[in-house]
């Protein structure tokens, strides 16, 4: 139990913004990234919801951080706990626009970013359960374009890693 981080991407709602107004943005999926070495994405891209409504992904994934097989991930968690100034201490969620089938010349485009700080989970000693986090506009990081409902259960893994740090 302690050797994994559980992540669930429940749903996404958008506020009225350039995103809701943009006709070329039709389908959205969400990517979850841990630093540079691990990325998972929702297998489905869903139609962009009108402002005020939500689309439901109900996508769950697990990041294993056991010593035997997932050394890199575990060392990274250690670095988060041991280096207070490490900037990349967050799980990063990216909302991505998936071009429609008939528009193959369009690329997937990152339209928004949301973050969950693993360090903060450890400091507060509290997992994030079905919590709305702000999605910031990829073109204007001060603008919130929506809310992503996520669960990040990382506390037991972080405690386990922390215990190990103390044993050195």
TrEMBL record:
GO terms, molecular function: thromboxane A2 receptor binding
A GO CC annotation given for this chain: photoreceptor connecting cilium
Domain RPGRIP1 C-terminal: 2-164
PANTHER family found in the cross-reference section: PROTEIN FANTOM (PTHR14240:SF4), RETINITIS PIGMENTOSA GTPASE REGULATOR-INTERACTING PROTEIN (PTHR14240)
Residue ranges of the TM segments: none
Source organism phylogeny: Eukaryota, Metazoa, Chordata, Craniata, Vertebrata
Pfam families: RPGR1_C (PF18111)
Protein's name in the database: FTM protein
UniProt record, GO biological process: non-motile cilium assembly; retinal rod cell development
């Amino acid at each position: 139990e302690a050797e994994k981080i559980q992540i669930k991407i429940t749903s996404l709602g958008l506020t009225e913004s350039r995103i809701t107004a943009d006709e070329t943005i039709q389908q959205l999926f969400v990517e979850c990234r841990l630093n540079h070495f691990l990325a998972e994405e929702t297998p489905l891209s869903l139609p962009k919801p009108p402002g005020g409504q939500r689309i439901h992904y109900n996508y769950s994934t697990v990041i294993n951080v056991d010593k035997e097989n997932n050394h890199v991930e575990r060392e990274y968690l250690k670095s988060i706990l041991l280096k207070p100034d490490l900037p990349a201490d967050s799980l990063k969620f990216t909302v991505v626009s998936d071009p429609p089938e008939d528009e193959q010349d369009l690329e997937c485009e990152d339209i928004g970013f949301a973050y969950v700080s693993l360090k903060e989970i450890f400091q507060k000693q509290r997992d994030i359960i079905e919590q709305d986090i702000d999605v910031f506009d990829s073109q204007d990081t001060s603008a919130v374009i929506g809310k992503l409902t996520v669960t990040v259960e990382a506390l037991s893994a972080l405690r386990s890693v922390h215990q190990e740090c103390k044993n050195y």
